[in-house]
Amino acid sequence: MYTRPACVLLVLFTSSCFQARYLTQAARGQAELLAGARSIDSVVTDRAVDPRVRALLGQVATIKAFGKRHGLRPTGNYESYVQLRRPSVSWVVSACEPLGFEAKHWSFPIVGSVPYLGFFDPLDAAAYARSLEADGLDVDVRPVEAYSTLGWFKDPVLSSMIPPGETTLADLANVILHESTHASVYVPDQGFFNESLASFVADVLTPLFLKEREGPGSRSLAAWEARAVRGGVRVEQLHRTYAALERLYQSPLPDTQKRAEKKRILAAARAQLGWRRKLNNATLMQFKTYAAASSGFRAVYDSCAQDMPAFLRKMAALSGAVFGSAQRDELDTLLMLLVHQGC
User: Fold this and answer.
1) What does 215-255 look like in DSSP terms, one character per residue?
2) Average model confidence (pLDDT) for the chain?
3) What is the arithmetic mean of pLDDT over 246-271?
């Protein structure tokens, strides 16, 4: 699909031919998105567009204004809309050692080290996943509905951000608030921190937005909170699975026994979760990236008297040196230090 000359052309800016190919597909995919964007104002007044989509897009400016009032940096994002021809905007590939929670990382200019790669074509994602599996790694591939370009482009609202169901407005608000957090606070080389923080901020602000917009007794808020309860049960099960496997990997058992016990633990977890999708170390590392530090962030947020702008200023003041290592995935100790420092 890609020719060697293209790799040679871009190798000056990247460390490998693979990086060149990857950045080429990323640039092409981003360009296609931007080329298909329409201003939200034009979509909202276009009677040929689904009225439900038009009504939800009419809420975007309100969501952004809400985020600004709660400390998120105002940007030119989410002023346009892209109708995708696929259910997801991209597919994320992550990988991990099979007998230890050591995630694979990729390094790129500007953004630094990241624990996953996004592909615009699912076939490209699947092919790369197979190459990682051939190297003996646990691999996870998952679809995503949105991503942030960290201010390099004006990110559009995507049709994948507007799912069906009673929680549609909540889902749209949550994604916009999550990605707006990335645009407000981002520490290079700290993917665990960046994603966990954005998830925490969006999950705190989304029900507050619904209460303000629709009232405390709205059906969408009730549906969102019910789903959050179910999600909490799932997170607890994933946490127990992660902890059980971590103990196993640190044990003196031979690798053959570790692999057999790992298979048993994961099968039991999938049965309890009712999952049909693959579950492995890479899947669990993704869970850790997005959800594992929520209690630590909550403690810092509470120490700031639940003042989100003050909390975000404290997060934005952190530098890479504070973390002590690239891609620090144990954040609770660091966050507890912030609690003791006060807000």
Assistant:
1) -TT-HHHHHHHHHHHHHHHHHHHHHHHHHHHHHHHHSS--H
2) 88
3) 97
End-to-end CA separation in angstroms for the chain: 52
Residue 115 DSSP symbol:
S
What length is written for the chain? 343
Distance CA(87)–CA(89), nearest Å, equals 7
Listed in sequence order, the DSSP H helices in 36-121 are: 40-44, 51-57, 60-69
Compute the CA torsion angle 187, 188, 190, 194 (nearest 10 deg). Answer: 50
How far apart are the C-alpha atoms of 18 and 26, rounded to whole Å? Answer: 12
Dihedral Cα 51, 52, 58, 64, nearest 10 deg: -160
* CB 192, CB 327: distance < 8 Å: yes
157 within 8 A of 41, measured Cβ to Cβ? no
pLDDT tens-digit readout, 262-310: 999 999 999 999 998 899 999 998 887 666 568 889 999 999 999 999 9
Q: SS3 for 273-331, per residue? A: HCCCCCCCHHHHHHHHHHHCCHHHHHHHHHHCCCCHHHHHHHHHCCCHHHHCCCCCCCC
Quickly count: other Cβ atoms within 10 Å of residue 92's Cβ.
18
How many C-alpha atoms does 51 have within 13 Å on its Cβ side? 0
Backbone dihedral angles phi then psi of residue 167, each to the nearest 5 degrees: -95, 15
pLDDT, tens only, 52-94: 999 999 999 999 999 999 999 988 999 999 999 998 999 999 9
Which tokens belong to 119?
Answer: 């592909």
| pTM of this prediction exceeds 0.70 | yes
Q: For 100-120, what is each residue's pLDDT tens digit?
A: 999 998 887 666 778 889 999
Which residues, 6 or more positions from 327, have their beta carbon under 8 angstroms from its beta carbon? 103, 105, 113, 115, 189, 190, 191, 192
Q: Which helix (H) or strand (E) holds 144?
A: strand 138-144
Q: What does 157-215 look like in DSSP terms, one character per residue?
A: EEGGGS-SSTTHHHHHHHHHHHHHHHHH---TT-HHHHHHHHHHHHHHHHHHHHHHHH-
What the block records as the tokens of 70 is: 């709660």
State yes or no: pLDDT of 11 exceeds 60.
no
Number of CB atoms found within 10 A of residue 327's CB = 17
